[in-house]
Amino acid sequence: MGFAQMRNEELEMRKEFLTRDECTAMRGIAILAIMLHNYCHFIGSIVKENEYQYFTSHNEGLWQVLTHPDALLPVHLLSYFGHYGVPVFLFLSGFGLVLKYEKNLKIEELKSGSLQFFNPSILQFLRYHYLKLLRMLIVGFTLFVIVDIMTPGRFQFHWDNVIAQLLMYINVLPTPDKIIWPGIYWFFGLMIELYIVYRLLLYRQKSWIVIALIAVCWLLQVFCDPEGETLNRLRYNFIGGMLPFGVGILAGRYVEHLNLHLSRWAWGIVLLGTTILIVIMGFHYQSWLWIPLLIIVGTIALVKVLPQQLLTLVTWFGTISAAMFVVHPIARKLFITVAWRQDIYDGLILYVIVAIALSWAVKKVIDQIPSPKL
Hints:
By secondary structure, the chain is mostly helical. The protein is 72% helix and 0% strand.
């Protein structure tokens, strides 16, 4: 038996730590968290999150609603914690890049015995991933601008910021939180930065380089003023996202060798433990910086313990997650006024229904745009 044939059988027989469906389910959980968060935190009386900066007052608000819960407790929790869907996406991006570019052997190469990995040039790689992001961005941004113009509270777009958004370098400009609209589109600039970092610095390099870059990005945040603009700028860019992205790269390279196939009960204990730690660590600035790592572990544990019916449902949400990501700001713009009139749950249910329907429809549109080729 040839080595190539043995390698092919090994790939087919190996039990995956994270299956394709489980990764899709993680995307589904992440996009639901982000979608709900981006509605709830726009409501004035609701507890705000610590995402780009760390405000003690936000923690005090969380403690107040935890110790004196009322009917709006779920809305408070979604507002405060929902943004942590972003690290899950970053983890899956790093994980997927490794599987695609560092471990993926073409079938014809296996048969020929050459065992050459797919190795795109830097320009090929960046062009491909930029165009993949642009397919989503251009559809969502166009629809959002139309709705924004036709509804109260129109945003004042400037041509240079629009160009910066479409070319995905707007994150590096001053006061990104005031010029990126809708705000969630900051993620596109973050992703293109991480693709550049991966291809230039981490692609098939030693894993200690990944760990060192995570450490450098962490150290750059450690000594910042928790409420200052410097931390805000860092976390709008790849420095703030390097931890979950880098962990995804390391997981893609090594997790299959660790034999972490735990029982459902064990995963349940992991989920409970990470949930408690996430809450506790959020009350201290230095430990807050590491919460994304626990979010990733907790989300993996969640998909491992979900009943099959729920797993199927969140997996479906994962299949429309890209479309939901770009269009849910449209539904928010339409229905946030309902919450502002204090009909918070009325507005929330309408928002969710319309966001899901729009996502399904917009996915059909995005699928009609030719996919880029490497």
